[in-house]
């Protein structure tokens, strides 16, 4: 799907642009449709694959062993030896968990994540939804109440936000898919998400962290989470 003239946006405000995005799922392709309205019927010229990087760094760890608040960790986004960290009492936990498009409601925030592709400009890999988003920050992305975009848990540096916005309305279908109207970075966007699209919610979490989980904190890569006030958890089996 070709982005418009703006180097920081998916599409500039041109009229009646309708595009099909390819999403690779288990070797197959699932399509969904994006439309955006504004000035002329001609689609925008193809531009370079340039999207904003999230402003905040993240330290990502795989949990090897958990004994209450004491965790044995191995960094997932930098080289290093295993470390042991004891989490501070009262740290806020949020979960990064798979879900279905049928859960999406008005007021949620969606971020479409993908990577560059020489044929299609980019390929969408997954969608991240935030249940209780705050106002967008300088990079254009909203955060959860604990300050996460959901991108923190993506250890592949080639994955970047492609399209994002707050959900204004949703039409759900019996097959689990949905048509979603977003307030996108350059105006209204309508997205059709099929039921097979990998979709993850960032939401409050009240279960203990266990071995096999992956965690992220808002800190430089490799930094111990011992003093973290907020932790994003991808439970074992959720990725």
Q: How would you describe this protein?
A:
With 239 residues, the chain is mostly beta strands. The chain has one domain (52-239). It contains no helices and 14 strands. The protein has a 14-stranded mixed β-sheet, with no helix packed on it. A hairpin with a 7-residue loop joins strand 4 and strand 5.
Overall 3D shape: globular
Helix content: under 10%
Strand order of the largest sheet: 1-2-11-10-9-7-8-12-6-14-13-3-4-5
Structural class: mainly beta
Share of residues in strands = 35-45%
User: How would a crystallographer describe the biggest sheet?
Assistant: 14 strands, mixed
On the 0 to 100 scale, the average pLDDT is: 79
Give the total of domains: 1
Rg value: 18 Å
As residue ranges, the low-confidence spans are 1-33, 37-50
Amino-to-carboxy terminus distance: 26 Å
Number of strands: 14
Helical run tally: 0
- The topology string of helices and strands comes to EEEEEEEEEEEEEE
List keywords for this structure.
239 residues, mainly beta, 14-stranded mixed beta sheet, 14 strands, 0% helix, 44% strand, globular, disordered N terminus
What would you say about this model in short?
The protein is mainly beta and 239 residues long. The protein contains no helices and 14 strands.
């Amino acid at each position: 799907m070709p982005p418009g003239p703006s180097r920081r946006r998916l599409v500039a405000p041109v009229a009646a642009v309708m595009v099909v995005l390819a999403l690779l799922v288990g070797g197959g392709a699932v399509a969904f449709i994006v439309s955006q309205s504004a000035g002329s019927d001609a689609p925008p010229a193809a531009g370079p694959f340039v999207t904003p990087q999230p402003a905040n760094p993240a330290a990502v760890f795989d949990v090897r062993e958990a004994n209450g608040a004491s965790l044995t960790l191995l960094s997932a986004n930098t080289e290093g030896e295993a470390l042991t960290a004891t989490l501070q009492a009262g740290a806020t936990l949020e979960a990064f968990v798979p879900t279905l498009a049928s859960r999406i409601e008005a007021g949620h925030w969606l971020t479409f994540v993908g990577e560059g592709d020489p044929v299609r400009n980019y390929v969408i890999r997954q969608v991240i939804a935030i249940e209780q988003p705050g106002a967008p920050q300088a990079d254009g992305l909203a955060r959860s109440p604990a300050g996460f975009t959901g991108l923190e848990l993506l250890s592949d540096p080639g994955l970047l936000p492609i399209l994002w916005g707050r959900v204004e309305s949703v039409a759900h279908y019996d097959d689990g898919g949905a048509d979603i109207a977003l307030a996108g970075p350059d105006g209204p966007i309508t997205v059709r998400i099929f039921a097979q699209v990998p979709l993850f919610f960032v939401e409050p979490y009240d279960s203990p962290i266990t071995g096999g989980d992956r965690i992220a904190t808002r800190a430089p890569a490799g930094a111990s989470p011992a003093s973290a006030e907020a932790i994003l958890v991808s439970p074992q089996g959720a990725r």
